[in-house]
Structures are given as structure tokens and as C-alpha cells.
Amino acid sequence: MRSRLSTLAVVLVALAVVFSLFGAVATGPAAAVLAGESASSAGDGGVSPGIASELDDAGSHAIDGGFSRSTYTGTAGDSVAIRHAVSASGNDTAYLLVGGNRLTDSGGTVGFVDVIRVSGSSTTINTRLIGTNERTVDSCRAPDVSCDLTFTNDDGDVIAENLTELRTAVSSATGAGDLARPIVPERYRLAITNGTFVVRDSGAVDPVTVAAEADLVLRKPTFHDEVEVFTTADAEVIADREGGDTESLGVLRENGVDRTAVTKGDRVVLGFESTGIWGALSHFAESRTGEPLEAGSTVDHRVLVDLLEAEEGVSLRIRQTNPGRNELRTEVDLADADPDDVTLFLAEGTELERGDSDQGPSRFYLAIDTSDDGPFTDGPDPGDEYAIEFALEGTEGERYAFSDGREPPAAFGAASATDDDIDEQYPYHETNEGGVSAEAVFHIQERYLRYDHVTDDRTVLVETNNGSITGTTSVLPSAELSATIVRDTDETPNRTESDLSIANESFTLDSGLAGVVPGTRASYRLYRGQSLQDSRPVLFVENATDPARLRLTNRTTTNLTVTRGESLANLSATIQNVGQLRNRERLTLDVDEGAIVEERHITVTPGTAENETYPGTDVDLEPGTYPYRLSIDGDHVNGTLTVKADPAVTRVGDTDGDAGESADEVDGDAEGQTGDANGDESTQEDPSGAGAGGGAPNGTEDNGEMPDEERPDGPAATLLPFGIGTRETFGGTVLVGATYLLGHWV
């Protein structure tokens, strides 16, 4: 019994020793995990990446580190800055694991894994390039980057010692294989580790030793569908004005105006905002200049040309929309443009929400010279209209794919995942999305100053009350325009030099001669810098809107009486020029709204008057009263014209009646008659006392007098002692003859 107990004790002691050894091995990696931050990443199902392995050796691959935040948010296709603290002892190396994690919603893996050598305080990841043959970090995928990596399976067996071997050793579930396209918007694990990893059966790649963990969340890129358009001065003008050659977007705005009308020779500035393109654009910028993109900087426009030619699905077109018949359409050729004619400005956008870790700008501006030797395929002319289209190309049902299957794949050279004939596909469009675009227009106008008040001989009119020369202009406010006003006097000439003040497409210039006598003349010279642009005479007037005013004076006839058939010789119109310019205007006489119309042109010098009469205009109107109007230069005078019957004329009608009756009498129009020419009885009282049937025959008045309109001005001719007028005399002669034949008086 004792021997058996001794044997059992020996066995128990041996087992205790064995268990203690295994316990030491199992607790070593756990201590390494606890030395850093939490080893489990949100969404990984709570699986700890710190796995016991016979590869672990206390004191080997000792690293330390931490992240500045738990989650870094960025935009897929842009650059993301990861701020961290990393240190490694001795010859050890710290690595940053990107991806390899599982997704909580699907249970699958993120489909991407990369390991990057890191040091210092920050690592910037270009999410458009990561995993491709272009890189901005020390990825262990690159053949020229030395990494000490070890990958094991769950059983602790080594399956790969680099990412290339990992790709061939396991299925593509790890994401270590070929990328189909740039990494998509998703959550990717970030872990600072020592380079030893365990590959799970699910495809997840877990670090064995973790100093710190965080998450990189990439959002889907967004697009602003509006183009900002404004115009600014030529670069040389701005350099002279600002006193330097360095331009900025702020300087462009200060020297420009917000309008789509671009004065020929100035620059049109076009602004575009989008996310998801800045990783690619930054790559081309570093290839040309060696510097990454930064907001507020100015870049060679050929960096943008490289992006447009990379089949990245990004396009920009500026084309004329109104070419003439048989004329080629003018376009902006950025690829062939001189860098002095096109400048690329980078800025922070304001319309789109970006991740808190996005680096670089989100908006770019192109400043394009509109001179004849600028980037246009044919010099732009005033009146030309242009359309701008900035687009992210895509075809619904198609999606971007890398053009070859190399490991790692080529970053650029877009293709369609399903149709080789489709080249332009933006990398971040889904299959159910088509292309998006932003559009705008601008047009070219001539460079001009248009004065508000000017005569046909180019004289500028200036009102004496303020002495300002005013007008409209297409010249920008930054243009340095000045003028000299010289007034020659009998004594010392008066000279004034002033700058043109330009605002809201209008200009004002102080002549320095406010309050001078109307009619004062001076000379005007306009300069751009020291270059003479214009020379004109200046005339000071009381009213610049109406400087040559012709007015009808109170000496103009307003009441005139004429005999029918006479002329209007006694009608007089007196016109005075009350302005400061010699003027020629049309004088119009209109009697009774067109019954008589007479027009003639009158020229009157300032301060004088002209008298016009109408001796050659005869009045052929029925006797009566007629209104008339004399008008000139917006002024008019109304008058009354009275037409009398000509006493020397007897009007003979066509109706039956005695030969001595006038046509008016035959028609029954004599004053006081109410009957007709056929013998209707008159209801008028007989002033002579005759009965109802005793009225004058054939419609003559009962009192034997002529109607007023037929009555001559002088006394009636008297042939008999009791005074009978001319018409009565003729009728009386007939009566006398009748009395003589009958032998008695009736």
C-alpha cells in the first residue's frame, strides 16, 4: 500500500509540474495583451486576438503604442491620417494591421488585410492606393519593404511568413488575395502589433500581440452637383496690385466679382467639390511635385490632367455651345495648356460632410485665362457661350474593376467588371448607380466703358451740380483706371486727376469741377496705368439727361381766326433752346387731329430762339372752331383755330331750288330753320309777325337775314331804300318782276 501511495505521489507531482509549465505558456501572451489596450475590436464577436502559441517568447518582439482616438472616420478614396504613439525595443519592429476583421452583420470578413511598418506619431493612409502597386506607406506587400511577419493557423502551425505567401496559402476569405477594386466604404480594424498573426478558419486575421486597437470607418464618397463660377483679373494685374507673384484663392476673390459674364482677357474661375477623388489626385501630385495635396495651396494644373487621363471615371469638359455655321466648336484644352494660363487652386469645401480624419482639400478651382493665346482651342470672342460639365462617370448595372490580376493590382487603368468595352467607371459607384455630374455656363463679353450721357460727337456730359462722370463697365474693380480733366481758362488751366471707382458694373469719376457755369467745356483723358485708353471733350450742363432742350415760348400763337381758303401766315411758333447743346428737332403742327398736319425740322443753338410761321399752309376747312397743337422735343402748346366763311363765295348745290339759293339754304342748314328742303312747316316763331305759312320760301330765315356763318364782315350792300342784303336783293328782283307783271303788290 505504501509503495502504491509513493508511486501515486510521484505521478501527482509530475502532473503538477507539467500543468505549471503549460500554464506559464498560456499566460504569457495574455500578459502582453493586457499591457496594451483592449485586444478585441468592436464587431469581432468578442474573440480575443491574443492566442497562446508555441512561437511566443517572453521578451521577444516587445512593442508599445496607442491611438489618439478609438475610431478614425474618413472617406473612401481620400487620404486618412492615423495619429498614434509607437515604440519598439531593440531591433524589434512595430506593425499596423489594417483590416482582417470580421463583420457583425454578415459574419463574414471585411475582405481586406494589409500590414504596414510604422513608427513615429502619424501614418497617412491613401485609401485609394492601399492594397495596390502604388503606395504612400511602407506596406509589407511591397517587395522593397522588409517585414518580419509570421502567420499561423489555429493549431499553431506556420502557414506563411509574408503577405504573398498568405495569399497562396489560404482562401481569399482573408482578403489577402487580389483586390477586385479599391477598398470600399466599410469598417476596418487597426492594430499596433509585433508581426505575429493567427489566421482563423473564418478568414479573420488576428494579431497575437496587441499594443493598441482602433477602427477605421470609411464613408461613401459624396458629390456636390453645382459648379461655382466667378471672374477675376489677369495674373499680372493681380501681381502688380498685390505686390507679389504668389496667388491664393482669397486674392482671386478680392480681385474678382461673382458673375458668369467674363470680360475677354480676364480669367474665369470654376469651382468643383467632391470627395473620393483626392487620394488619386494626391498620388499624381506627389508623382509630379513630390508634395502631397494641402488645402490652400496652388498646384500645377497638369496634376488634374493626369487624373482626367487615368481612366478613373472623372471627367471635365468646357465647350462652346453657340458656334457659327461651318465653325469648329471651341473648347478648353487643359492637356495642352500653358501653366501660366491655367492655375489649380485647392480649398476646403463647405457643402459636403467629411470624415474627421480626412486629409487634404475637398474642393478645387481652375483659373482659366480668356486671352487669345490662352488654353482655348480658338481664341474666345465676345458673345461666345460655354458649358461646363464635371462628372463622375458610371453606367447603371456596371462597376469598376482593376484592369489586371497582378499582385498587388495596378492602381489605375479602369475597366468594367462585366463589359470590357466600358472604360470610364468611377471606383465607388455601386452597380445600381449611374454617373453624376455638375453643370454651369459662362459667356465672354467685350471690355468696355459706356458713359451714361454722351452726344453724337462723343462729348461727355457732366451735370454741374455734382461734377461726376458716370457710366457702366465690364471692367473689374481691380483694374487701375484713372482720368485727367483739363479745363482751359484765360488764366491758369485747371487740371484734375482722379481714379475711376468701379462697383456693381458701374463707374464714377469726380471731375473736380462741380458748380461751374453750364456750358463750360473741358478735355478728358482716360489711362490704364500709364497707357492712354480714351480722349474726349467734356461739356457741363444743367441736365445731362436732357441737355439740348427745345421749348415753345409764351410768344407762340394760341388763338387764331382765318377765312376759309386763307393760309396760316399769322400762326407763329417761337422755339427756344434752354439747354447747352445745339439741337435739331421736329416741329409738328396738328389741326383737329389730322385735318391739317405740317412737320418741319428746327435747329436752335443754345440760348437763342427761332420763330416759325406757316404762310404756305392753306386752311380748307368748313367754317367752325378747331383745336390745334404745336409740339417739339416733348414740349407742346395747344391753341384754337376759328375758320370763317369767305363772303365772296356763293356755294351752289345740286338740289332743286331758285337760282339765288346757296347750297346751305337748299340743304336746310340755315340758322333758325327746322323744316326740310321739301317744304315741311317750320315750328319757329315768325319774328316779322307772319303766320305759320308765311315763312321765307325754300328755307330762308323769316327775318330775311343771312345765317351768321355766311354774313360778310362789312355792311350789306343796299340796293333799295329799306336795306335788303345781297341774297335778299336777288330774291327781291324776282318779286319786283312779279309785281310788275301782275299789276299789284303781293
Helices, strands, pairings?
Blueprint lengths: L1 H34 L27 E5 L3 E5 L3 E10 L6 E5 L13 E5 L4 E5 L11 E2 L10 E3 L5 E3 L2 H7 L17 E7 L2 E4 L5 E3 L2 E10 L8 E5 L2 H8 L6 H6 L1 E2 L3 E3 L3 E7 L4 H12 L8 E2 L2 H7 L5 E7 L21 E6 L10 E2 L3 E7 L15 E8 L7 E2 L13 E2 L19 E10 L3 E3 L8 E4 L4 E6 L7 E7 L6 E6 L1 E3 L2 E5 L10 E8 L2 E11 L8 E3 L6 E5 L3 E11 L5 E9 L4 E9 L4 E10 L5 E9 L2 E10 L18 H4 L59 H17 L4
Parallel strand pairs: 2-13, 8-11, 16-26, 28-35, 37-43
Antiparallel strand pairs: 1-3, 3-6, 3-21, 4-5, 4-10, 5-7, 8-9, 10-13, 11-12, 14-15, 14-17, 17-22, 18-20, 19-23, 20-22, 23-26, 24-25, 27-29, 29-33, 30-31, 30-34, 32-33, 34-35, 36-38, 38-41, 39-40, 39-42, 42-43
Helix pairs in contact: 5-6
Q: Tell how many strands the DSSP assignment holds.
A: 43
Q: What average pLDDT do the residues reach?
A: 81
Overall structural domain count = 4
Query: Radius of gyration, rounded?
Result: 53 Å
Give the strand content: 25-35%
